[in-house]
Amino acid sequence: MEKRDYPLRKFEVNYNAQEIAERFKKLYTGLVYDAMESVGLKGRAMDSGVYPLVHTMKVAGHAFTMHGKATPNMDTYTHNIRLGLMKSMSDGCIQIRDTQGNLNCGQFGEISATAAAAVGCVGAVIDGSTRDSNILIDMDFPTFCRFRNPVEAYGRFMIVDYQIPIFVKGIDGMIVVNPGDYIFGDNDGVVVVPYERTIEILEMAEEWFAAEARSRKAMADGRDPFDVYDEYGRF
């Protein structure tokens, strides 16, 4: 058989991935979305229906994009495109999978998570389904999906490309997710920050988060809410 080489498509971010993830995880998605919308980045939240397996799970990291499709193809070499994508992952990345609306299998599971974690991936967002959900929960591997399905993907669905622009369902239509875009998710859903705006949006959200904390304290201390809003600008 002819040997096929799969391209290395590693995306290296220009910041400390662990530090930035820790800062995002102190926030919440609503605040990050508000920050984006305030600078004209509207509609960059996945639509209702994508949630974590457990409400306490969060994902925060740069996107490792994966494009899949329904196919009965069981060709070993094509199936092993995953070898190329595994070598392309970088520390702190989040797998985000475009499944093209496939409903007939679980497109992510225990083996996928174990392999991904071994090469530095710290979470997954599936615009589709997962299986092995109890094991993923026990692994504490943050996983977001639309639904759960016990059926194996092999012979039904396959990842056919990776680290390319993909499309996922958003609140105002489809969202383009590029490799490196920042993926942040909590129990309210998932937002997608353009890579080049990651630090800007993070710093803005942190400022607002601090202002909200001051507002809460002031109101708890008995101050008039209107005066508090005038002073801090967040309510």
Write the layout of secondary structure elements.
Blueprint: H1 17-25, H2 29-38, E1 51-52, E2 59-70, H3 76-79, H4 81-88, E3 93-98, H5 110-118, E4 124-127, E5 129-130, H6 133-139, E6 143-145, E7 147-148, E8 157-162, E9 166-170, E10 173-177, E11 182-186, E12 189-193, H7 198-220, H8 225-232
Parallel strand pairs: 2-3, 3-4, 4-6, 5-7
Antiparallel strand pairs: 1-6, 2-8, 2-11, 9-10, 11-12
Helix pairs in contact: 2-7, 7-8
Please give a quick description of this structure:
The chain is 33% helix and 24% strand. With 235 residues, it is α/β, with parallel strands linked by helices.
Structure, explained:
There is one protein chain. By secondary structure, this protein is an alpha/beta fold. It has one domain (17-196): Ribonuclease E inhibitor RraA/RraA-like (Glucose Oxidase, domain 1, 3-Layer(bba) Sandwich). It contains 8 helices and 12 strands. The strands form 3 sheets. Strands 1, 2, 3, 4, 6, 8, 11 and 12 form an 8-stranded mixed beta sheet that branches. The radius of gyration is 19 Å and the shape is elongated.
Largest sheet: 8 strands, mixed
**CATH level-3 fold name:** Glucose Oxidase, domain 1
Poorly predicted runs: none
User: What is the helix fraction of residues, given as a range?
Assistant: 25-40%
Radius of gyration: 19 Å
Number of helical elements? 8
The figure for the number of domains is 1
Coarse structural class: alpha/beta
Pfam families: RraA-like
Protein name: Putative 4-hydroxy-4-methyl-2-oxoglutarate aldolase
Organism: Sphingobacterium zhuxiongii
InterPro entries: RraA/RraA-like, RraA/RraA-like_sf
